[in-house]
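User: For a benchmark we're assembling, each entry needs the component sequences followed by a predicted structure for the full assembly. Here are entry 17's components. Please fill in the structure.
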Amino acid sequence: MLDLIEFGLFVTLLIVGFFAGTIVEKRHYASIRKREREYADVLAFAVRFPPDRVTPQRAFLVHGTVVISSDYFKTFVAGLRNLFGGRLRTYETLMERARREALLRLKHDARRQGAKLVVCVRFETTTISTGYAASIEVFAFGTALIPERTADSKEERDAALAFAARSVPA
Amino acid sequence: MKFENRVPAEGINSSSENPLIELGWLLAGSLGVIVALVIGVSLAAQWIAPRIPYRYEAKLAATLPSFATAPNTESARRVRSELQELADRLAARLEMPEGMVVRVGYRDDRTVNAFATIGGQTVFFRGLLTKLENENVLAMVMAHELAHLKYRHVSAALGRGVAVAVILSVVSAELGRNAAGGVLGQAGVATLLSFNREQERAADEAALRALYAEYGHVGGAIDLFDVFARLPNQQRDPNVPAVEFLRTHPLTANRIAAIKQWAVENDAAIDGPRRPLPPGIAALRKP
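Assistant: Structure for entry 17:
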């Protein structure tokens, strides 16, 4: 009898995990795609130095961080996958969402401080829970640059930036 | 050099495949592995266990509660000693494994059953004894159970049960504990030990040989099937005691045919004078 209750509980958790996880994931992806278009004008690159002809007047650190958790279903499927090996598909979406979200938060930080260019963007990942449901933190950081004021007008500044980098909005 | 930021590509780093499909495959795969493992290990254990010298089984049996303890009433003690006496006579005919001491237990219970279990023990229930009309038919049941011991069928079944429990405990601690408890526990020994058709056939044949050597005919075996044929159908009437013996020793037409075949091949008489039941057991039949 106790076994039956335990099994029922397990199946319930699995079902709840699946539906809740799917809805959360769908919503998160929709939100990520929408904001990626909104932040298309904030440029972020992995290069170590400013692009040619951009002479920074100010440079400062910007970052974005997100903590994200797996759900019961994802963890169970991943646990079974651990027996056989192969792509941990259920965790791939989790990690992808975390990285994209962290980058978006970095861009948000940059825009908030008046920068539209971030270079030397790096990612760090920290596992914060290794219990049944894995949770991770993804941390994105980079150097935000604000171009020099030699070109006095705003138009000229924008032109220099646009020359160096061309954004392609979705 | 021109720098540009593009919208991240979709579907490269993650898959849009429905995770339920992956779950289905993984579940089927892991269950398949477990089933294959259980079958493989149980076959291996079933093969190995009877080949382990009997003294190790005796040592294990000594750690478990005995089935052959002396009953508490005078008449039950008498029944037990009569059963033991018959068992000793038949065991001599059966050539039991080296070092095996046959012990008989008796249960004052209306269940129609008898079974062989670990450590050279057999247990008879009052329910079965009241259905038997002469010593020959009792000897057939007894010899059949002793033959399971002789061929170490009990060890094979126990080995299989324990091996499966070990596998299950790797999968789930709770499940494994229950299975192991079931195999070695008092209640489980009787019900979990099931023998396959080949083992039943071998036990029947050895029992017939012993019966023939003891009485000069195999009439007891034929009587046994008459007894079973007369038993009420328990499915129709829930008030009659469960006929456990039939459940664990399915009575097939093949089995009866094989017994008759054996008698013909060995030129053994099918009929002959029956010996009366020992007085203590015969007394059980009186209302």
